[in-house]
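Running this now, will post back.
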Amino acid sequence: MQPLTPRARRDPAPSRVAYRLHRLWLTPLFRALLRVGLPAFALTFAAGIYLSDTGRRAEISQTLASVQKTLEERPAFMVREVVIEGATDLSQAQVAALLPIDLPRSSFDLDLGALRAAIGAVDAVAGADLRIVSGGILSVRITERRPAVLLRSAAGLEILDAGGHPVGPASRRADYPDLPLVAGNGAGGQVAAAQMLWAAAAPIAGRLRGLVWIGERRWDLVLDRDQRIRLPQRDPVTALERVIALDQARDVLARDVVAIDMRNPQRPTIRMTAGATAAMHETRLLEQKTRLLEQRAAGQ
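Update: finished.
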């Protein structure tokens, strides 16, 4: 019987390859790559192979489009009515023409930003707020520009707001009796000054016809009977108040006056009509003759 050979003891130390693999596994980037990157790559590779077929891609696109359309056309997302608030005759028709008329319509098909910009481009509109509210209603709230003056030009009558921005055309002056009527080159940029003069002329408002911007530097007030009050470039309101005070004291504007010239406030000038001037000369001649006759009679 042969003696037993002692078994070799196993070395507990890991092999070099096992050691390196273990160290690599302890690296966070390597673990993330195996846990996330490798599955993601596998899924992407599989999806790429599956979608490489043109028919499959078309089928998926049709399915997604069908699902999207079904969601968009749900009753909760449909717009069935348009309500416009805050608009008057100046802007009602123009705003309505810009809004969708083929209702009901999905709210996803409405570009509220584009509609808001289009409505804001209307002259009479200062701002617009568009919202889709419950009940399938497209609510349009309009903030209109407030008419401030009427501008008369070669193109006709036009309404301007306080900033000189066009509001819309006007067919007749009588439709806006409370608005100042202005004319002249550049008058549209002098709305605030025109309003101040119009307010100062309240005592003669019944005779006031309009204001003319002369030479892009000063105003003329036009009254009935073709009378004019020529105002200076500086402090025209004070000059107008002086004329009104003179009229209240001596009733000047009721006489045969063509114009009261206040361009030189230190030397106001009154221009009479031709008939009144001739009559005044005749009166002076008659007065002179009467004095001569009286002097001769006294000398005898």
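The longest strand covers residues 125-133. More later if anyone needs it.
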